[in-house]
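Same chain as my last thread, 78 residues:
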Amino acid sequence: MLSLHLLSGDYITIGEDIVVQVFQTGSSFRVAVDAPRSVPIARGELHERANARPECIQRAYRKKPTAKQGFKRSAQAD
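reply #2:
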């Protein structure tokens, strides 16, 4: 999964004919998608009603261990 930091008005292109643009409206963001009519576009909650949550989203939300939970340092220097 590609994760980008975008500012209001910034956009990305996907292939030759898909453009995704982000706009800030107050305290929230809007996403504008320009794509061919043949490309299905659905909000996440609508997609998840019929399908499983995409694997890339599941990976993004898995908790990473903190220093207290997991990363133990050995006394030996590498």
